[in-house]
Automatic annotation (TrEMBL):
Family to which this protein belongs: Belongs to the RNA methyltransferase RlmH family.
Catalysed reaction, written as an equation: pseudouridine(1915) in 23S rRNA + S-adenosyl-L-methionine = N(3)-methylpseudouridine(1915) in 23S rRNA + S-adenosyl-L-homocysteine + H(+)
Primary role: Specifically methylates the pseudouridine at position 1915 (m3Psi1915) in 23S rRNA.
Subunit structure of this chain's protein: Homodimer.
CDD domains hit by this protein: RlmH-like
Binding site for S-adenosyl-L-methionine: 56, 88
Keyword hit for Signal: no
Name by which UniProt lists this protein: Ribosomal RNA large subunit methyltransferase H
Organism: Erythrobacter fulvus
Keywords: Cytoplasm, Methyltransferase, rRNA processing, S-adenosyl-L-methionine, Transferase
Taxonomy, superkingdom: Bacteria
Length: 141
């Protein structure tokens, strides 16, 4: 299953960008990173179907890493070919975008800078795939 991160803003050469690159290289699942401008319409190819859309949103559901991994594994096993992870700009997502998403995902109740959220998402995707593979990276407490 393709893990497709679509994010507002350019991460460029930054500590967050280095983290995103580090986890992208470690991922054994296919991963694609698409950056949109902070405002206006972004362009992206039609999704590989069937697909799911996950919006990172502070009003979303906080999930334990094991539960997130189980969800991705279930979608993969159901034949989902692409999961799109949408990271908004400073103003977040519209009500229409929230309503059409398959999942609103939060990294806790705090609001995170979108560049840091991108790095955190990449780490959680790496962690989820290692959990599904039985790799020792994830050490549950």
């Amino acid at each position: 299953m393709l893990l497709h991160i679509i994010a507002r803003g350019k991460i460029g050469r930054s500590p967050e960008g280095e983290l995103v690159d580090r986890y992208a290289k470690r991922l054994t699942w296919p991963v694609k990173l698409t950056e949109w401008p902070d405002t206006g319409a972004g362009k992206v190819a039609d999704p590989v179907t069937p697909y799911r859309t996950v919006l990172l949103d502070e009003r979303g559901r906080a999930m334990a890493s094991e539960d997130f991994a189980a969800l991705l594994g279930r979608w993969r096993d159901e034949g989902v070919r692409e999961t799109r992870f949408m990271i908004g700009a400073a103003d977040g997502h519209s009500d229409a975008e929230r309503a059409s998403a398959d999942l609103l995902l939060a990294f806790g109740p705090a609001t995170w800078p979108h560049m840091l959220a991108r790095a955190m998402l990449m780490e959680q995707l790496y962690r989820a795939t290692t959990i599904l593979a039985g790799h020792p990276y994830h050490r549950a407490g």
